[in-house]
Every structure is written in structure tokens, then in C-alpha cells.
Design a protein that fits this description.
Chains A, B: Catalyzes the first step in the biosynthesis of NAD from nicotinic acid, the ATP-dependent synthesis of beta-nicotinate D-ribonucleotide from nicotinate and 5-phospho-D-ribose 1-phosphate. The structure is a homodimer. The first copy, chain A, is an alpha/beta fold. Chain A has helices at residues 11-22, 50-58, 64-73, 78-83, 115-120, 122-145, 162-175, 183-189, 199-204, 208-218, 232-248, 263-276, 292-300, 312-315, 397-409, 413-416, 429-443, and strands at 28-35, 45-46, 92-95, 101-102, 107-114, 150-153, 179-180, 224-226, 255-258, 283-286, 307-310, 325-332, 335-336, 351-357, 363-370, 378-379, 382-386, 389-390, 425-427. In chain A, 41% of the residues lie in helices and 18% in strands. In chain A, α6 packs across α7 and α7 (162-175) packs across α15. Chain A is elongated. The relative contact order of chain A is 0.16.
């Protein structure tokens, strides 16, 4: 499903490969992908995107047309372009499984491979892991804000292109959403497809009641009627009058959808109209510019709403559409490496994250340590690929969704309430010592 | 290049089609796509995405595999799914040409087609036109902030998936960027590919000077050296010492790139180091979390920087990752239609936008009017498709880029300075009268 062209990369990756090749630099490199400081709007991240990252690495090769274009482009020397025909990914990947809560500065994915391989995959690995982690995190916040509610991804139309819409549906389902409006996401990922009707459907009819009745007769299975095209309460009264007639034919109105105005006030008015008409089983579903804050406010206000469609704010993560993440060289040819650019220095070497829990299962603290240090806690990074082949146990959307529910339940209560709280992420003594030694060597 | 599956749509589009089919509703429908109120961060929009929208409509059909999946999904009746095999778009499209400045409430695209056709295409049309317009607008702001500077899209890694990265490259080139780092965008759209080197390249070498020298010998054509991996000024001194030696071999260092710290201060220090070493022709290129505001500040401060790589802020439009846009039914079977949902009421009927200019060419005001009203000004919507086939004269990236430069030059000076200013968008008397009549009829 996802785009697989190896030209979906930054030009400089190939420039560097050309230089590496000219100087025979193909020793083993270790790159790690991590998120830097989180913005104030985010207290945790939910790791996602690993399955697509593994799929990308496993299928990585230059097609004949791509090589022809590269050769014709004049950007690279012909013998270098020819050498790319045999290019494959043969390395190892360790990663934090999808659906695991992570924090800033923690490596979420490590690639160990010959330098050209590990280098080339940088752009697309970041592109895949960053985006799904951004969306899974946003979705997790909505899930935490609305316990027990039905949540549906409505965001394809304002997602950033096709792949964004599809992967946002996946990432939000992973985080605990119950379904998506996007049919292709339902096909590609097995997510329940959920849909109602648009205002245009109601408008196309001269009469709102007739529009509802026609729809109900044709599509009786999953029946939600959109009632705010002209006047929400009038729409509710039409449904209240229609529902008994439809019931006599065996058609059940499952829900009404509100999409505008003061949703809490409308929901209460509509609930009263439906209850007074003896229709307590017709549920109320709301949409329209919702995010975790408005959903939380509606839940806190006990608005009689059973489900929410969340669109733009979800699929663009509108308050935090991007996070500061990086994929950095930590070791080459057995020697640890450290970037020291101002404000962007990295921790060198091959690392693991160890997590400790309180007796009730709440996350207490994490430690980022060198792989060979002895540190208490649960190691988060696990084998995802060996010798270019996937370790099957680590991927799978259903497993990731189960894991996400468990991992979110381990968050400290303030983070579960979308409040600000810091989980301590400690840097191990061994890692600090290594960084200090590299800085001394480099300054010398 | 772009995703073409018709399953890339909201489930409800097909639900509505099923209901339309059951009741023989296939009269001509008129839908218009427009942007609602702009956020405070945006004073204008740059229309983009039409070429991909037309490509989508022209190639629109359900594949056999898609129909098989729909039939197996149980979401829709078998005879309805079977009827989709013949589905094509045969309608007319009028649109504001790409690269034209537009404002809130102005229709940018109109579809006139049998109701099922015009309905089904809603989700993907919005997805394509919204995203590219968001990005072209953001890019235009960077272009206005940095007159005469080289601007390059660096944003694939944090774009929202593959298509977002590719279409952001296109939209930013349309708006006046000079190139992109994304190779596939260069191939697909003919945009110049521009690349330098990453910190990992420098780190992989034990010695920074050697890293530069190797790179220069292998890739002498477009040579930019990244100098901030360890210490920016030290990097500049290494380049200053290396450049004469390389020049003796016929290799010219074109530029150095700064990617961290106080870019203005580093640029001045680096400029002095290079000038003192007799290297005034080595240009300075900057990147690292830039947006239109930081670029404007660097230009206003006369920082000696000749070009900027803009990444995340551009390809996610990070301050405004989504705009409020809609695709609404304005007429069905010859009768104008009006949605009246609270805060989301639409202007009914088939409309045109007329633009008026001051003698010096500056945009004075626009009028949104009914198609058959007589209004002074230049009509913005032009034929883009007739009978399901493209009107070729209206698309083309090169033409759109030329148009964008001209249209941005017509913006009132405050908008060109990224300040807030309102260009009056008037609603014609005929349109107001029609809306009032429909509201009366509906209330009656």
C-alpha cells in the first residue's frame, strides 16, 4: 500500500553514498531514531510506524525506471548509479514495539547495517515513524479524554495527502479509536469502516424527513442520521416522529449525528426530544472541529453523547503537527560517534531504554543506557529485523492496539488526565562517561 | 504518481450513492469548494492542487479488486456494488487557476455533474486541493519574506507521509521555491533537486577536513559543505584552508551550510573567516527549524546568508497545518440549495469571483456573485474540465509558478510584508437576495 520508491528520499543521501563508495566506507554503522524535547502540549508519545518501517526496509531496492532516471538526471556518476541495482537492506533493527509509551531522548528504533544502507534509509524511516507517532500520540490523548466513548477517524479530507489519511487511520486505531471513515484504510488494515451521511445528502432532497426515510430504507444496517443541516432540534423531532414508523418495518434508527453549534446544549435538547418521544435507545454522535480538549469538556460536562467523530485535529495533529525527531549516527566501524551541534548534541553509542514501574504498574522512571550496562528495569527496544528479515513477533496492528491500551494504562494519572507531568528519563553513568570521553578526544 | 484508488474516500460517500441510486437521484448537482474564515496567521491563500484534482477526476474508476473488496465487506448491497463498475466522471469543472491568490469564502473549484459523481469525489478533491493550498500558501509567505534568496524544500522527513512530501515539494516550487531535496519530486514534477550532506557523513569520518575533501573530490559539481557538526567557526576555517587546494585541482567550493545555533551570528563570523581567507565567493546557506518569520528576521538583519533550506515548518505548515474548507452542494436539479448549520451556512447557487485592481495592479477587492450577475472585474474561475475531459490550458506547474509570482506581486503591501490586512470580499446583491429567499422558503 505505502509508497516504496527509493527516490522518495533526500538527494543528499545518495550524494553521501557516492562519497562513501569512492572511499570504501562500508563498515557497520549504528543509527538511532529518537524524539528530542517534547513541546508543552505533549507529556508522552505513543510509538507507532514500525510495521511500515520494517516493510520499507525489507522491500528496499531501486527499480529499473528509477535507475534510468537517476542516470539521466546527471546528478550522480554513472558507475555509482549502476552499483545501486544490487542495493538491499541486510541489517538489524531493534525498536520499541508499536503502542508503547515513550518519552523524549529515548531511542525508539536502532539500525545496525553497513554505512551506505543505514544512511540511505534515513529520510523515509523518519517520515514513516515520525508521522505515525505524531498521530498515535494525538489519538491517544483523545482516547484518554473520552473513556468508554466510540471514537471514529473522520479526517481524510484534511489529512496531508493520501498516505497521511491512511496511516492516520491506522495510527488512531492503534491508539484506541474504534473505526475510521476511510474505506481504503478499512481494506488495508482491517479497521472497522464507519460512516453516516453528509449535509449534501439532506440538501439534495426537498424535504429533510423524506431524506432520512429514504436513507433508512436503503441502508438499514448501520443507521445514523445527520440532523443539523437546517436546525438541530427540528431534525431531532423529525427523527423522533420517523423512528416508530421505521421500527414497524424492522428498521432501527441507531443514532443521530450533531455537527455544529454548542454540542453539549444541542445534545441535551436532542436527548430530551428523543426521550420524550420514547426513543431512549437512539444514541447521539457528535462531530465538528473536535479535539481532545473539546471532547474532554463534553465528557466532563456529562453531555449525553455516546460517540465522537474526530477529523482535522486528529489527522493533522493540528496543535503539534510535527515533533523534533532525528536519526543520528551513534557508532561507525566500532567507534562511538557524537554530534555536538549547538542545542542538538546526541548521546553516542548503542543504547537501550530500561523502564521501571510502581507496584500498581504505573511508570516510575526510564533510564537510557549503553547496551552493555547493567541497569534495572524492563528493556524497551526489542529485535525487529535480523539480517534484513523481519522478526515477525514484533509487528501487527491488533497486537499494537492491545499493547497501547496496556501502556496508556501505565501512565501516571496526571498524564492520563492530559495534564503536564514529567516522567524522569535518566541518562546512565556509562553513557555520560562515554560522551565526556568523546568530547575530550574531539577537543584535543 | 498520486494514489488513485476510489476506496480513498469516506464510507458515507458510497452510502449516499447507494441511497441516491435507490431513488433515481442522478440529476445535475453543483458543488463548490471554498475556504471558510482564515486564521489570524494567514491573510491570503495561494490556490494549488488543481492539476492533481483534474488527474483524479479524469482517471476515476473502481478497479476489479476494489469492487471485490466492497462486495465482500458487506457494507453495501451487491447490486449497488456491481453498478459501480461503470462509474466515471463525465462532468464539468471550473476552477481558480493554480498560483492565484484567493481569500476566504471564495469558491476555488466548482463541479457540475450528475449528483452521484459530484458527491463521490468530495473527500479526495478536498484532500488534494486543501493540502496543496495550505502548503503553497505557507511557501508563498517564505518567498515573500526572503526576496532574492535561494529557497529549498528540505521537509520530506517530517512531512505527513509520502504523498505529503511529494506534493509539498510541488506546492512550494509553485509558490516560488527554487528546488527540493526530494529526488522523487524532482523526477515527478521536474523540480531542481538540491542536496548537501548530513552530519552523519561528517561523523562517519575520523577527521572533518578529510570528510570535506573526500566529498569534494567525488562530487565536485554542486558542492556545499556542512560545517556545524562540531563547531561552526572551526568548520569554516577548515573550509577556508581547503578551498585553495581544491581550486588548484579545479574543484570549487560553492557554499557552506549552517544548521544550528544563532544563524545570524554564525553567518557573520563565517563570512568574516571566508572573506579573510580570500574566499568571498563561497556562499552561506542556512537551515535548521526555519520558517517565514525566522527567515524574514535573518533577511531584515542583513545576515550574510544567500539561501535557506526550509523543512518541517514548510511541509507541515506547522502554524496552520489545516484550513477550514468545505465542498458543499449549492444546487440540485436546477434548484439552489443552502446549508444553514450554525456558523457554517453557505452561499447558494453557481458563483463566480470577480477581482478588481488599482491602477498599479494591486488587488483592490473581490466580489462573490451569481454566475449570471453583471459584476465589474476579472472573473477568477475558469473552465478546467468539460464532459469529464481536462481543458489543457488550465494546468501545468511551470505556468502556475509564473502565475503565482504575478499574483503575489498584486497583493497589497501589508500582506506582502506578512502583516495583517483585509482585502474586501463583497457578496453581491443577487447572491444575498437568493440566500434570503431560500431561508424564507425553508422557514415557511
Amino acid at each position: 500500500m505505502i509508497e516504496q520508491s527509493l527516490l522518495l528520499t533526500d538527494a543528499y543521501e545518495l550524494s553521501m553514498l557516492e562519497a562513501y563508495r569512492a572511499h570504501g566506507m562500508a563498515e557497520i554503522a549504528v543509527f538511532e531514531l529518537f524524539f528530542r524535547k517534547l513541546p508543552p502540549e505533549r507529556g508522552f508519545l505513543l510509538a507507532a510506524g514500525l510495521e511500515q518501517a520494517v516493510e520499507f526496509l525489507q522491500n528496499l531496492r531501486f527499480g529499473a525506471e528509477e535507475l534510468d532516471w537517476l542516470a539521466a538526471s546527471g546528478l550522480f556518476a554513472p558507475d555509482f548509479v549502476a552499483s545501486l541495482a544490487e542495493f538491499r537492506f541486510t541489517g538489524d533493527v531493534d525498536a520499541v514495539p508499536e503502542g508503547t509509551v515513550v518519552f523524549a531522548d529515548e531511542p525508539v528504533l536502532r539500525v545496525i547495517a553497513p554505512l551506505p544502507q543505514a544512511q540511505l534509509v534515513e529520510t523515509r524511516l523518519l517520515n514513516l515513524v515520525h508521522f505515525q507517532t505524531v498521530i498515535a500520540t494525538k489519538a491517544a490523548r483523545v482516547v484518554l479524554a473520552a473513556p468508554g466513548k466510540q471514537l471514529v477517524d473522520f479526517g481524510l479530507r484534511r489529512a496531508h495527502g493520501a498516505e497521511a489519511g491512511l496511516l492516520a487511520a491506522r495510527a488512531s486505531y492503534l491508539a484506541g479509536f474504534g473505526g475510521t471513515a476511510t474505506l481504503q484504510a478499512s481494506r488495508d488494515f482491517g479497521i472497522p469502516a464507519i460512516g453516516t451521511m453528509a449535509h449534501s445528502y439532506v440538501q439534495a432532497h426537498d424535504d429533510e424527513a423524506a431524506a432520512f426515510e429514504y436513507f433508512a430504507r436503503v441502508r438499514p444496517r448501520v443507521l445514523t442520521l445527520l440532523i443539523d443541516t437546517y436546525n438541530t432540534e427540528r431534525g431531532a423531532r423529525i427523527v423522533a416522529a420517523l423512528a416508530p414508523r421505521l421500527a414497524a418495518e424492522g428498521v432501527t434508527v441507531g443514532a443521530v449525528r450533531l455537527d455544529s453549534g454548542d454540542l453539549a446544549a444541542h445534545a441535551r435538547a436532542v436527548r430530551a426530544i428523543l426521550d420524550d418521544a420514547g426513543q431512549p435507545n437512539i444514541r447521539i454522535f457528535a462531530s465538528g472541529g473536535l479535539d481532545e480538549y473539546s471532547v474532554q469538556a463534553l465528557c466532563n460536562a456529562d453531555a449525553p453523547i455516546e460517540g465522537f467523530g474526530v477529523g482535522t485535529a486528529l489527522t493533522t495533529s493540528s496543535d503539534v503537527p510535527a515533533l523534533d525527531c532525528a536519526y543520528k549516527l551513534q557508532e561507525y566501524a566500532g567507534t562511538p560517534r557524537r554530534k555536538r551541534s549547538e542545542g542538538k548534541a546526541t548521546w553516542p553509542g548503542r543504547k537501550q531504554v530500561y523502564r521501571r514501574y510502581a507496584p500498581d504498574g504505573t511508570i516510575l522512571s526510564d533510564t537510557v543506557a549503553l547496551l552493555d550496562e547493567l541497569v534495572a528495569g524492563e528493556p524497551l527496544l526489542q529485535p525487529a529485523m535480523r539480517g534484513g528479515l523481519p522478526v515477525p513477533s514484533l509487528t501487527g496492528l491488533a497486537e499494537a492496539r492491545t499493547r497501547a491500551a496496556a501502556s496508556l494504562a501505565q501512565l501516571p494519572p496526571p498524564l492520563r488526565r492530559l495534564e503536564k507531568a514529567d516522567v524522569p528519563v535518566e541518562i546512565s553513568p556509562g553513557l555520560r562517561a562515554l560522551a565526556a570521553r568523546l568530547d575530550r578526544d574531539n577537543a584535543a
